[in-house]
Task: structure prediction
Amino acid sequence: MQVRYVDRCCGWGGTGGGAFALGECSLVAAPLFFLVSRCTRYNSARWGHRRLAVFLSLRSVMALLVCGAGVFSLLHYSVSLRRRELGVRAALGAAPGQLLGLVMRRSGALVAAGMVIGIPASVYLGMVLEAELYRVDRSSPMYYLGAAGLLVAIALIASFLPARHAARINPVDCLRAE
Result:
């Protein structure tokens, strides 16, 4: 007697016995809706882990966006406090590119300080997660470089708007306001 079986996610497989045997006599005994492939069972067992991973990924994206908003607001506040200084520099002949570079260097220092604190903290937390969770891999430096690169890109985008505002300062209006 030839027996067909369902194996992994491949659908109907070849012949032979197996955990999911479906022969001529078993069609009458067991309805087909009880027949579940190994892939379906594996996916349903892993759904909780996948949902947690999606949730944590969305939270990390939200944290990066909040970080970018924080860098933007901090630099915008810094530019507004230094408006008189930037106006004097512009009146003395500083080019808009120099003012832009001044503000961008300030944001670069903030991002560098964050990296100095954040990267060792993430390595430590990776070790804790690797000890607690199954199949968490922290050995690849590409994870850390990718996260750091994404953070730098968001910080540069967030700091460009206040820097552009500082480069467009009119020295006459700035000095007259004080």
Notes: Residues 47-177 form one domain. The chain has two domains: 4-34, 47-177.
